Amino acid sequence: MESNYDILKSLIESDPFLRYVSIHVIEMKEGYAKLSMDFREEITRIGNMANGGALATLADATGGASVLSLMEGKNQVTVSLNIDFLEPVKNGPVIAEGKVIRKGKNLVFSEIKIFDGMGKLCAHATGIWFYLP
After folding, report:
1. CATH homologous superfamily for the domain 4-132
2. Which of 11, 37, 62, 132 could form a disulfide with 96 if both were Cys (CB 3.0 to 4.6 A apart)?
3. Average pLDDT for residues 23-45, to the nearest whole number?
4. Among 67, 83, 78, CA closest to 128
């Protein structure tokens, strides 16, 4: 029998855009999600580093997954996402960890950390997601 987290993993990995950028779920538990993105040419920019938009997509998906892991709504949408790029990502896989830091009635706040393939912290993000009933 599939767990609720297996069902969420399948849902996330079936998203056409997330599949396109090669985002995969590594781990999910209540209030936490760990996702990866393959480091490949399609996500790079000049200088052989990950494009900031690709990293923001990973942060958004990871924060959204951490919110979904609470299993209090059928879906969620991003209200805001703020990201700071600390170091260039030049190798992979790129790993992101999202943790819910506050939950309200309809809004959930999550913090996301993005690491390169060597485990170096390269970006930090915070965001707010709205539950869809």
Report:
1. Hotdog Thioesterase (3.10.129.10)
2. 62
3. 94
4. 78
